[in-house]
């Protein structure tokens, strides 16, 4: 891909999209994990994927990454087919998985040397970036510790840094705040904002509605593999007939969980009042 093409994509001029998903379907046996899902992600935006447990968020993300194959549907990432142009797509994509980091028998130093060599990164620039990221996440003291011995949050920081080191155009992050303390969560949110300000895009899969409301430009709500609604928080609130409500109420209404939650709370109150201390 030429520099000019790259610039066009970064400026959002080529179709104005970085990711295009059309009529995506994926089943695991009887379970339809993703059911006719369509959305696009534009340069400069943080796009939220929201949905209850088992909604199909991670499956969608893994298909975009080429980690699992779809049954049907069209996918384009940077105008390319991730299953055919795997290397080109992966070179420009950063991924934070919902699972903790797997390279447990390495230290962060070894991990980042390894990543630098397979991605062929410039040594001086990478060292500089690592210094910034380790300082920002207050993680310098863990640089030579075995990843297996790090706390959950500190492992997560390593995963986040690993996803950023090659300056990807698109970041796909699946519950990236898991385990991070408030300060590190703030740092990560800031990194995501800065990334989009310079033309990058983010797909942000999460359950944390406050964070989605705070940082996502647009949100797709999915439930049982299907797209329930898509838009800005304001647009979603209008769709749910809940103008001015917070995203939690909008989400529960749009996923038809509001009445069930009210019922559960009523039952819990009954149980607690029947079992007074
Ligand atoms: N490898 C697999 N084999 C069988 N079923 C799977 C597999 N991966 C996912 N599923 C099923 O597909 C559905 C969607 O799962 P997925 O992990 O995409 O949901 P999710 O929205 O990421 O959920 P969570 O919020 O819990 O992370 C679920 O019913 C899940 O059990
Ligand atoms: Mg998931």
Structure characterization notes:
Strands 5-6-7-3-8-9 form a 6-stranded mixed sheet, sandwiched between helices. A 3-stranded antiparallel sheet has the order 2-1-4, with helices on one face. Helices cover 42% and strands 21% of the residues. The chain has 2 domains: 3-92 and 168-274, P-loop containing nucleotide triphosphate hydrolases (Rossmann fold); 102-162, no CATH class. It starts with a helix and ends with a helix. By secondary structure, the chain is α/β, with parallel strands linked by helices. Adenosine-5'-triphosphate binds next to strand 2 and helix 2.
Secondary-structure-derived class: alpha/beta
In total, the number of domains comes to 2
Cα shape: globular
Give the C-alpha Rg: 20 Å
Give the CATH level 1 class of the largest domain: Alpha Beta
CATH homologous superfamily title of the largest domain: P-loop containing nucleotide triphosphate hydrolases
Q: How many DSSP helices?
A: 11
Architecture blueprint of SSEs:
Elements: H1 3-10, E1 19-28, E2 31-41, E3 46-50, H2 57-64, E4 72-77, H3 86-91, E5 93-96, H4 108-119, H5 123-136, H6 152-164, E6 170-174, H7 182-197, E7 201-206, H8 209-215, E8 218-223, E9 226-231, H9 233-239, H10 247-254, H11 258-274
Helix pairs in contact: 9-10
List keywords for this structure.
277 residues; alpha/beta; Rossmann fold; 2 domains; three-stranded antiparallel β-sheet; 11 helices; 42% helix; binds adenosine-5'-triphosphate; binds magnesium ion
What's this model, at a glance?
This protein is of the alpha/beta class and 277 residues long. It has helices at 3-10, 57-64, 86-91, 108-119, 123-136, 152-164, 182-197, 209-215, 233-239, 247-254, 258-274; strands spanning 19-28, 31-41, 46-50, 72-77, 93-96, 170-174, 201-206, 218-223, 226-231. The protein folds into two domains: 3-92 and 168-274, Rossmann fold; 102-162, no CATH class.
